[in-house]
Amino acid sequence: MTRISTGGLIDRSKTLRFRFDGTNYSGRPGDTLASALLANGVRLMGRSFKYHRPRGVLSAGPEEPSALVELRSGARREPNIPAPVVELFHGLEASSQNRFPSLGFDLMAVNGLLAPLFSAGFYYKTFMWPASWWEKLYEPLIRHAAGLGRAATEDDPDSYDRAHLFCDVLVVGSGPAGLAAALAAGRRGARVVLCESGPLLGGRLLAEHTEIDGMPGPAWAAATEAALRDCPGVTILRRTTVAAVFDHGSYVAVERVADHKPVPDSHEPRQRVWRIVAKRCVLAAGAFERLATFGDNDRPGVMLAGAVRTYLNRYAVLPGRAPVVATSGDDGWRTVADCVRLGIGVAAIIDRRSEITSQQRQLAEASGAQLLLGGRIARVYGGTGLYGLDVEDAAGKRQFVSTELLAVAGGWNPAVQLACHLGGKPVWSEHTQAFVPGTLPPGMSVAGAARGTFGLAAALAEGSAAGAAAADGTGFAGSAPAVPRADDAATTPAPIWFLAGGRGKAFVDFQHDVTTADIAQAQQEGFVSVEHMKRYTTHGMATDQGKTGGVAGMAAMAALTGRSMAETGTTLHRPPYTPIAIGALAGHHRGKDFRPTRRTPAHDWAAEQGASFVETGPWLRAEWFTQPGERTWLQSCTREVNAVRGGVGVCDVSTLGKIEIVGPDAGAFLDFLYINTFSTLPVGRVRYGTMLREDGFVFDDGTTARLAPDRWVMTTTTANAPRVLQHMEFVHQVLRPDWRVAFVSVTDQWAQFAVAGPRARSVIAAVLDAGFDVSDAAFPFMAAGNFTSLGGVETRLFRISFSGEQAYEIGVPSAYGDALVRKIAAAGAVPYGLEALSVMRIEKGHPAGGELNGQTTAMDLGMGRMMSSKKDFIGRAMAQRPALRDPQRPALVGLKPVKAGDRLRAGAHLLPRTATHRIENDQGWISSVAFSPSLNSWIGLGLLANGPARHGEIIRTLDPVRGGNALAEVVSPCFIDPDGVRLRG
Amino acid sequence: MVEHSAFAGAQAVTATQGGTTVRAIEPLSVVSVTAWRGQEAALADAVRATFGLDLPQAGRWTAHAGLTAIWAGPGHWWLQRGGRSALMQELAALGDHAGLIDISDARAVLRLRGPLARDILLGLLPLDLHPSVFTPGQVASTIAAHMTVQVRQLDDKPTFDLSCLRSYAGSLWRALELASAGPPRLSALSA
């Protein structure tokens, strides 16, 4: 055990039991998985991605590249979770990743010996040839070897929430700068949202030995939190990481609502994605300590010096015996000071500099350490755990030091990521020896370490000022805030520590196993730009996104090319800041809740009748109604067609778009929309119409009825309903704003049913209230009018036919739709679905989706003569283009197989009978097919070059995909009752 | 019952946590009123003279003697009464200045009332409903779970009416159910 007996923010009165790789351990509330493992003496936590190198924990935060675990088991198993951010809970189960068969002995570590093979560009070079090997060999091989952890294979049992939040000031991070900013803004009355990724507010105050306003750092953080809770406008979100910045002050944050529990409470989401809209943002995300580059810098026991302080101060854990501190500046001395204060003997202190302060000399003496000024690390001993170092002094004298912990202080990188999400590149600051935020997203300011301001007093001052300014900017002015007082001495930021030479690989990306040798190779092969180098070596492309090693890689390239850091530059950071589970982004929108569903008023009735439903956009439509004994859809569909053609059927057509149009100029408006004339239509009549797009191609079709001199109702196809309304809005608002016409969608207002078949009239008569005359004389084909049914309910009736039979469409306000369809069915109408509807429209040659495909003209569809020459209409001019009037264009025809029983296939190509099967001979395609019960044959509609002139010709229908090759006769697209006797009868 | 609920059996009052309730408001009589261009003022005068009601400005709604006017777009209002009534006939005289279309059955309305209403709506609407921003008398068109909805604040309890296309009623109910399933998101904003 390496737990320190006092101090830390852990609860020693309680014990939490947990398992790692099958072994039982115990920890304390307040621990993370990483701190608890270290407290149990576990230093080996994972294997690296490519070389399977043994790895321990490098850091104490989300930047962790090495100690990545699979957390939980079964359906809740989650891969690649950094152990330092996992809050310990009772019963926690975790396992190491990427090892085979065990963590201590990994067969795949042989990859380390094959390193030349796995160098930069390995994938690009090795798995290129032969291409046929990809599926069978390369891909399975890569998949087996790579990928780190395993995702759960079962459905996620947890729920995820998405929510919106609005504020004046968003503060990202609750370290000293963030707390000061939130307090300054909150006290002025602004609506403030403070996001902290951890469970406790305080940031580095929880990890360092500091004093603010006479209080220890954690106590000041707690007092400030209490003060924030007294500000009514302040919202504190813990365990919430701001992951992305988008336009217009929009931010995405992930709240880990229940990740710190074994399972979420009842109905509690596991995680929540917040979309935060903030007028101002103060970025106070702190900084990440960067790794130093030397041979075997990845051995378990080599840690960041700041992380060592976190483990000492926050978790009361000494991560290894007899620590050695290596520092390139003042910062590492804080680790020495903490060791001295806690009575921990330091084995050695290596400072890159040749001169240090007298205070530091005193500290060195008090720590009992050997002091090596101007020294370096020459060799690291220990595969699965550090046990010693060869260190060299300035004179090159080498000696062995026994140690389990090397704390490396190589400077800090401001957490600039969020400042870059809108494209602002970080800029190199010579003074700070780091990249600092460049052009900021609008409304954002940066305070504290994120800005490269590393002193505590300075961070507090900057945070206060930024918070006050942000509040000012949103209308909450006030006097200058009281700045919390801290008395830390100014320190000199440390330069990047790049130690060439030494034995073993020197890693600049632990998670992707990228070494200085890979950077050198990239440079040699011409990938000198950091953006190219990144992609070629995969440096900084792992889930940690190079938070510890990114700048080290740039520094390696700078050294190789002899350019400055400013000239070398850095890669751009993109969202997300830390990984987000896809499930959290999906929120509740999964399974049946993926998208909302539109249901017709007759939905429940249809379900009772055995309907199978098909999605048509958001609508659910009944496609057929399975009756006892029917085994295939075709049986049901054929029965339904026969029922309509031999008797009467009812079909729910409520999904068709309905647009009610009123006003004195409605007739002129319709004339302008449709190719044919409507203004002359008498009241009480309905007419079929076709609309073009501006480019002259057919847009949509349907019927429009005139119910009163200034009241019309238009129908559209189901698919185009919203687009037609949008088109009409455009035409009215932009082209004809002066016309007195108003229209709204009434699709949802009316439940509408087609009643079709030789007995349709008797059903309609039975359904309408008594006293209405629907005889042929009183209500002929293409009549429309207002009636009542169901005892006085307003009813619209249209004598129109899609099926070719005697047919009506009857509509009532939607609340009455269920009652109406039950009454229609009770009067003897057989329910029929979308498939039967489609079969009958193909039998009649009516164009629908397959023909109204956006590529056909009115002429193509046999409606050329409908185009009025006496008026202007949308698409008129462009429809006159020669190519659109070319008689060789594919035009609508009917197709019937020559050999009885041959099946036609939609999508098949049409070729002259004897032509070779080449694309030059292609003359069109089949757009719709159906099995026609009436003709007892498959039939089709197609678009065939010069088609209308070729009735009677035998052509070939070729379907190379499904192996179809049938001869078909070109016929009229209207297969049934071409004179329309039935629909008028 | 000849009339069928848009919410197909889900319309019973449902209590969520903390005395917050949701229920369907139906039936309603609603007429879409679109002023002819240039006739907006004449329409407003006619509405005031006939019904004692001021047509609301953009983003607002007004009510008088059981008749509610909801802004629905430039020059566009919904006039609404509870229950089924002959509202088209009642408003017929406005036809000189505007186009009138009955949409009583085109919409479905859920009423959410109680201390957790705002917290629940955080999970549903991309809209700032903070009392300093959104108050009784305001209305907004927005989206909820990929559906177009109109949200209207009625009072400070607070009470909100959410209106969607009738065919989406079941999905809106479900979305509200999901948005209110968990514990409150932010206790501070719930009051």
Describe the global form of chain B.
globular
Helix content of chain A: 10-25%
Q: What's the quaternary structure here?
A: heterodimer
SSE-based structural type of chain B = alpha+beta
User: Might you state the CATH topology name of the largest domain in chain B?
Assistant: Gyrase A, domain 2
CATH topology of the largest domain in chain A: FAD/NAD(P)-binding domain
Biggest beta sheet attributes of chain B? 6 strands, antiparallel
**Main sheet attributes: strand count, strand direction, barrel closure of chain A:** 7 strands, mixed
Characterization of this structure:
The complex is a heterodimer of chains A (985) and B (191). With 985 residues, chain A is α+β, with helices and mostly antiparallel strands. Chain A has seven domains: 16-122, 2Fe-2S iron-sulphur cluster binding domain, sarcosine oxidase, alpha subunit, N-terminal domain (Ubiquitin-like (UB roll)); 160-287 and 414-473, FAD/NAD(P)-binding domain, CATH 3.50.50; 292-409, FAD/NAD(P)-binding domain (3-Layer(bba) Sandwich), CATH 3.50.50; 496-580, Orthogonal Bundle (Arc Repressor Mutant, subunit A), CATH 1.10.10; 603-655 and 749-840, Gyrase A, domain 2; 657-745, 2-Layer Sandwich (Alpha-Beta Plaits); 886-985, Elongation Factor Tu (Ef-tu), domain 3. Chain A contains 24 helices and 49 strands. In chain A, the strands form 13 sheets. In chain A, strands 8, 9, 12, 13, 14, 15 and 28 form a seven-stranded mixed beta sheet that branches. A six-stranded mixed beta sheet of chain A has the order 40-41-42-39-33-43, sandwiched between helices. In chain A, strands 45-48-49-44-47-46 form a six-stranded antiparallel beta sheet, with helices on one face. In chain A, strand 19, helix 9 (358-367) and strand 20 (370-373) form a beta-alpha-beta unit. The longest helix of chain A is centred in the middle third of the chain and has 18 residues, at 456-473. The termini of chain A are far apart. The relative contact order of chain A is 0.07. Chain B has 191 residues and is an alpha+beta fold. Chain B has two domains: 14-26 and 106-190, Probable tRNA modification gtpase trme, domain 1 (Gyrase A, domain 2); 28-102, 2-Layer Sandwich (Alpha-Beta Plaits). The model of chain B has no long low-confidence stretch (mean pLDDT 92). The interface between A and B is large, with 58 and 53 residues.
